[in-house]
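INFO worker-7 received task bundle
INFO bundle size: 2
INFO processing item 0
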Amino acid sequence: QVQLVESGGGLVQAGGSLRLSCAGSGSILSIASMGWYRQAPGKQRELVAHITGGGSTNYADSVKGRFTISRDNAKSTMYLQMNSLRPEDTAVYYCHAYVIRHYWGQGTQVTVSS
């Protein structure tokens, strides 16, 4: 069984930075396809960034050049470095992993004030 726990969310002013972490249990995470999603009030959940087990990445157009996804397989942890934050980045951010089936974290709130 895989469990994912996010941390690092909070309140930040526009232009600021936050670093989200997703700690996973289970060694199988080292081969998992993983990603960060977000859901703002009244909106659908959307993919923010994705990273394969081999380290290939892709990003939503809205965050390219500002966010960086990374992973440390030895620690079973994934990160999202978020710079130049904007009010429209405000959302609950979820960690996701796919290996045989989908796994989700409980979410962490990110609020960017203008």
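INFO item 0 finished
INFO processing item 1
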Amino acid sequence: QVQLQESGPGLVKPSQTLSLTCTVSGGSITTNMKYWSWIRQPPGKGLEWMGTISASGNTYYHPSLKSRASISRDTSKNQFTLQLSSVTPEDTAVYYCARASVLLLKPWVSKSDYGYWGQGTQVTVSS
């Protein structure tokens, strides 16, 4: 059974860089044809796709976040990480990591689009 767990700070100051890590167990992030994504849900809004890293390490980003988001991975730890720079209060959201078996590049997603999800972690941007 694949399990994903997000970790990172719950509070970030405006203009700083948010860094979140997703630790995966029960399956390798290098398994072919698997795609590992970051998704967030701001208060009162839907699930917004942020970016994806493929099993081979290719990265894909939401066009509106491309200049601020970066996804990397540590295959030795079976983890992948999101960094989001220059955060503002509009970046306040519950952040999720998730896995899909196809490459999804649509800006808004539903729970059923991904086979596995982390529990989510609340991140608040505030001074």
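INFO item 1 finished
INFO post-check item 1: The CA atoms of residues 49 and 87 lie 17 Å apart.
INFO post-check item 1: The radius of gyration is 13 Å.
INFO worker-7 idle
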